[in-house]
């Protein structure tokens, strides 16, 4: 059975379709969207080995002409060089304005394929087929695309909404455990910022740190409720003028930690987990959130197998300096998303630097 | 006196302000647009030497914090490396989302500064201060931004409207004659596609090939009527869904010629002039346009000091092959804009390859 979540936007709305085995229906799902014949599948070697053939067969059966562009895996390749490779493939395969890029992979692939689609011929269509939990519940939805600058994450990018997001939960079976846990960080985030019921359901589960220990129904709930949360927020604020900022919960310090560890030692989800622990504690210090609720949050992060402490060797002064480079900085003030009760957050740029320092020192 | 032309768009409208000496009012004109304090001026060494200080003084007097990024001059530097340099300057000067990039220069600077603004932090403001005739009447207006791929012009880009276009006709005094003529190609284009009266006024002028031989009132008319033509078309079709295609008159073959000569031998305006001669003749061959009108067009192109023949050594088969790479290709068919009477054009993808070949061979 397919669960469909609509992302409603003024210029172009689209569906998030969630169904086991749906990878084989990719081509079929794309017909009816009035896309041109040419498709460029962008992926990485590991994912392409697992799922490339099925995706391509499905596209060909539906009548698409398919080429592929395989980029090296990993956040450190999320740069303009990789984008240049997609442009080269687009040129070689003569992608016209009616062509479509299909992003088959995790967040890195989705962000880069989306950015290339946003900027090739000033914008062609993109379809997101996320293969990691993180990409399924977060990065594939909402139209944020981009690459990293050597000195800061996602500093280069564009808003470019996909025409379709197709989620096949079965592909999570090949996802490494660490990557699964990284995705759980974003799921927990939705619980804290938007959906206290989702949070409670995860709390009630005995295990949360490996796919195979989690009931399939809970996985389904996690996917549906997380995508719904993201779709709700994005539909209300496509270009991050206001509400959408709440999705950055845990990301302010998270991005700094990720950047300072060279996008290697700590992955995005782990950094978000650490950032949520820090933000929760900042909220407690400022008297905005109850200590018991922070502890509930931190316990869930731990149950998901995620770190709750700063990686050793990361310099706290460097984190504070890196915060200034964050896209969310406004007039030099760092913007924080802070919880006030489970499922509700507020946005503030009034966090004293001393508080940030103290909280980080205690981690 | 300032002439103001409005570009009306659903999301963000803006003004084109034309006034002699207005470079010194840049800062003043930018206040009131609710821009942040930080401004990055992007320019090239020649233009910056002439006008950088005046622009920066004006901005500083109005209270802006100003940094600059100077890129090498020329179409061959319109690439991702130059964009990377703007990103680096943006990072170094900590440009936040509220910051503004000011493009001070010709079309190359405007396109690159616009693309960097479109993609830095997923989009910051850009103000266009065009210093060439071509940029004033064409590229600074309408939000098309981008860079070249080694194998094709403007293949990489984004739509990103400026917040203001400020035109100071006095800066044309330092524009090399060849560049002035290149701009006249686009002005003649507006005459042919949109404004038969503008065409007639230029026909009535004794000289058209050097700024100093043309009456100041005609220069003013040229700027105002050209900007108005561009604003009219862009307001009706921001993202090139239909009408805007007519602005590509002369550009189909023009882009191919420019690309095949390595963006050096023939500049953009010259290529457009050649492209208009070719397109006019194609229209005649297809029985769509009168021979006498083509001759009027070609005479005006010549009076502006522009070439009307293909540069020697350019391979016609290579031009025809290059047409396939054009952004305007749809399902493999090359789209041509063809005149039907002075001031009126039509768009067609039904031009036989043989006709294109014959016309080019006769040039």
TrEMBL record, chains A, B:
<dbReference type="GO" id="GO:0000166">
    <property type="term" value="F:nucleotide binding"/>
</dbReference>
<dbReference type="GO" id="GO:0005737">
    <property type="term" value="C:cytoplasm"/>
</dbReference>
<keyword id="KW-0547">Nucleotide-binding</keyword>
<feature type="binding site">
    <location>
        <position position="144"/>
    </location>
    <ligand>
        <name>NAD(+)</name>
    </ligand>
</feature>
<keyword id="KW-0170">Cobalt</keyword>
<dbReference type="GO" id="GO:0003856">
    <property type="term" value="F:3-dehydroquinate synthase activity"/>
</dbReference>
<keyword id="KW-0456">Lyase</keyword>
<keyword id="KW-0479">Metal-binding</keyword>
<dbReference type="InterPro" id="IPR056179">
    <property type="entry name" value="DHQS_C"/>
</dbReference>
<feature type="domain" description="3-dehydroquinate synthase C-terminal">
    <location>
        <begin position="183"/>
        <end position="329"/>
    </location>
</feature>
<keyword id="KW-0028">Amino-acid biosynthesis</keyword>
<dbReference type="GO" id="GO:0008652">
    <property type="term" value="P:amino acid biosynthetic process"/>
</dbReference>
<keyword id="KW-0862">Zinc</keyword>
<comment type="function">
    <text>Catalyzes the conversion of 3-deoxy-D-arabino-heptulosonate 7-phosphate (DAHP) to dehydroquinate (DHQ).</text>
</comment>
<dbReference type="Pfam" id="PF24621">
    <property type="entry name" value="DHQS_C"/>
</dbReference>
<comment type="similarity">
    <text>Belongs to the sugar phosphate cyclases superfamily. Dehydroquinate synthase family.</text>
</comment>
<comment type="pathway">
    <text>Metabolic intermediate biosynthesis; chorismate biosynthesis; chorismate from D-erythrose 4-phosphate and phosphoenolpyruvate: step 2/7.</text>
</comment>
<dbReference type="InterPro" id="IPR030960">
    <property type="entry name" value="DHQS/DOIS_N"/>
</dbReference>
<dbReference type="InterPro" id="IPR050071">
    <property type="entry name" value="Dehydroquinate_synthase"/>
</dbReference>
<feature type="binding site">
    <location>
        <position position="251"/>
    </location>
    <ligand>
        <name>Zn(2+)</name>
    </ligand>
</feature>
<dbReference type="Pfam" id="PF01761">
    <property type="entry name" value="DHQ_synthase"/>
</dbReference>
<feature type="domain" description="3-dehydroquinate synthase N-terminal">
    <location>
        <begin position="69"/>
        <end position="181"/>
    </location>
</feature>
<keyword id="KW-0963">Cytoplasm</keyword>
<feature type="binding site">
    <location>
        <position position="186"/>
    </location>
    <ligand>
        <name>Zn(2+)</name>
    </ligand>
</feature>
<dbReference type="InterPro" id="IPR030963">
    <property type="entry name" value="DHQ_synth_fam"/>
</dbReference>
<keyword id="KW-0057">Aromatic amino acid biosynthesis</keyword>
<dbReference type="InterPro" id="IPR016037">
    <property type="entry name" value="DHQ_synth_AroB"/>
</dbReference>
<protein>
    <recommendedName>
        <fullName>3-dehydroquinate synthase</fullName>
        <ecNumber>4.2.3.4</ecNumber>
    </recommendedName>
</protein>
<dbReference type="GO" id="GO:0046872">
    <property type="term" value="F:metal ion binding"/>
</dbReference>
<dbReference type="GO" id="GO:0009423">
    <property type="term" value="P:chorismate biosynthetic process"/>
</dbReference>
<feature type="binding site">
    <location>
        <position position="268"/>
    </location>
    <ligand>
        <name>Zn(2+)</name>
    </ligand>
</feature>
<keyword id="KW-0520">NAD</keyword>
<feature type="binding site">
    <location>
        <begin position="131"/>
        <end position="132"/>
    </location>
    <ligand>
        <name>NAD(+)</name>
    </ligand>
</feature>
<dbReference type="GO" id="GO:0009073">
    <property type="term" value="P:aromatic amino acid family biosynthetic process"/>
</dbReference>
<feature type="binding site">
    <location>
        <begin position="107"/>
        <end position="111"/>
    </location>
    <ligand>
        <name>NAD(+)</name>
    </ligand>
</feature>
<feature type="binding site">
    <location>
        <position position="153"/>
    </location>
    <ligand>
        <name>NAD(+)</name>
    </ligand>
</feature>
């Amino acid at each position: 059975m397919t669960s469909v979540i609509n992302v409603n936007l003024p210029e172009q709305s689209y569906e998030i379709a969630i169904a086991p085995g749906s990878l084989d229906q990719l081509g079929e799902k794309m017909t009816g969207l009035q896309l041109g014949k040419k498709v460029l599948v962008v992926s990485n070697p590991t994912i392409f080995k697992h799922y490339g053939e099925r995706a391509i067969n499905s596209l060909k059966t539906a009548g698409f002409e398919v080429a592929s562009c395989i980029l090296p895996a990993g956040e450190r390749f999320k740069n303009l060089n990789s984008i240049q490779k997609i442009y080269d493939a687009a040129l070689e395969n003569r992608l016209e304005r009616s062509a479509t890029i299909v992003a088959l992979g995790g967040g890195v692939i989705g962000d880069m394929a989306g950015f290339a689609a946003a900027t090739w011929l000033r914008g062609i269509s993109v379809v997101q087929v996320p293969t990691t939990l993180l990409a399924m519940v977060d990065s594939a939805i909402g139209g944020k695309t981009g690459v990293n600058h050597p000195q800061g994450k996602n500093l280069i990018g564009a808003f470019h909404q996909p025409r379709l997001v197709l989620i096949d939960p079965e592909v999570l079976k090949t996802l490494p455990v660490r990557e699964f846990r990284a995705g759980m960080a974003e799921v927990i985030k939705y619980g804290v910022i938007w959906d206290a019921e989702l949070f409670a359901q995860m709390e009630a589960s005995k295990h949360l740190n490996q796919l195979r220990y989690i009931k399939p129904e809970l996985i389904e709930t996690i996917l549906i409720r997380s995508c719904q949360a993201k779709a709700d927020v994005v539909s209300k604020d496509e270009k991050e003028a206001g509400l959408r900022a709440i999705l950055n919960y845990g990301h302010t310090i998270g991005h700094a930690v990720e950047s300072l560890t060279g996008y290697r030692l700590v992955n995005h989800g782990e950094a978000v987990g650490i950032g949520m622990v820090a933000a929760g504690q900042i909220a407690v210090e400022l008297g905005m959130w109850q200590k018991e609720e922070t502890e509930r949050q931190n316990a869930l992060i731990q149950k998901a197998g995620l770190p709750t402490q700063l990686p050793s060797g990361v310099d706290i002064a460097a984190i504070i300096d890196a915060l200034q480079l964050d896209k969310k900085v406004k007039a030099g003030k760092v913007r924080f998303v802070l919880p006030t009760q489970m499922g509700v957050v507020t946005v503030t740029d009034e966090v004293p630097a001393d508080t940030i320092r103290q909280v980080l020192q205690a981690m």
